[in-house]
Amino acid sequence: MRPERDGMGEHREAEAAPAPIDRLLAASVARRFYLENQSKVDIAREFDISRFKVARLLDAAVAHDIVRIDITVPAEIDAPLARALAERFGLRHCVVVDLTRSEGGPPAPADQHQVGRWLGTAAGQLLSEITQEGDVLGLDGSRPVEALSEAVGRLPSCQVVQLTGVHGPDLADDAAVTAVRRTAAAGGGRAFPLHTPFVLPDAPTAALLRSQPATAETLNQFDRVTKAVVGIEAWDATLARVYDALTEQERESCRVFGACAEVAGHLFDSVGQVIPTRLNARVISMNVAQLRAVPELIGVSGGLRSAEALLAVLKSGLLTGVVTDATTARRLLWSGGPDDMPRTQTAHVAETVT
To answer: Are strands 321-325 and 296-300 parallel, antiparallel or unpaired?
Structure first.
């Protein structure tokens, strides 16, 4: 090996180049470890090498591109950002999902459904962590709830209540109904679904449906809810679920009053004030006073225009927790904070989503 001189005139040997590896042996070891789930001890015994050499071969297999690690989930938890958001807005629970495919900007409109699914998955994991035996859980009919019910782990014994009526034509097996049943099954408790439309054509029809025994039984559970998850949507024709239920005159009136967010059929302006509309008498939903009385209310919101809507609802003081994406979280931190956060608590920040 060619000697070199250092700055003091002393000779030293040049650094050795990495030793060549036995690519076939490295590939064989990697196959047994990664695909066949064999232990390093068993692999060492099979090839009559030390387990330390097995470890070196596994490292070399990655370094030499024999093994390629591909993480197929395009999202991860940003715990520092979640802690900053929880501290800024006085939240008890906060989960921020970093959607790596949307790095550098918000997701494209075509990705909005998938954004909702990842946020719902994160909300389901959070609910699994914070639910206690005897809780009464409330789920609205927002887009992330279906993913939430699929992701929620085994729960302590609890009941699950549907907080809003059904959006689609299938009153028996709508996604919201299925989500309530699935989540209740995870806790071995009773499900209280709502087999009614979310928005009715007029107030008398809504009042009639509320008086039906099965519907009334679920509505009577609203005051018992201890933890709930609700979606937060920006107020416009493509996102808000009650937009089409209003007349153009009513929509214009909402615009004049500064509507920018919707929660369970209720509209909020940019400073967190509820905007009264005739729609309140026509929806089957938990009312604002009942939402405010829930001890743990988790808002889920992300994607296009979500920051403005989520900030408005944070200012209302309804929420004790938030599940959102990293882009929205950064915009909230850059924005002016709420003047009053009456629900400030010690924060719980999710570190992982499995």
So the answer is: parallel
Q: Which of 216, 238, 349, 219 is nearest to 303 (CA)?
A: 238
User: Looking at the DSSP assignment, which residues form a beta bridge with residue 199?
Assistant: 283
The reported pLDDT for the residue numbered 185 is: 94
Say what the pLDDT of residue 109 is. 43
pLDDT at 346: 45
pLDDT under 50 in the chain at which residues?
1-18, 102-110, 339-346, 351-354
CA distance 99 to 345: 27
Instruction: Please classify residue 308 by burial: count the beta carbons closer than 10 Å to its beta carbon, then call 0-12 exposed, 13-18 middle and 19+ buried.
Output: middle
DSSP 246-283: S-HHHHHHHHHTTEEEEETTEEEETTS-EE--GGGGTB
Domains of the chain: 3-63 (1.10.10), 75-349 (3.40.50.1360)
**CA 331 – CA 333 distance, rounded (Å):** 5
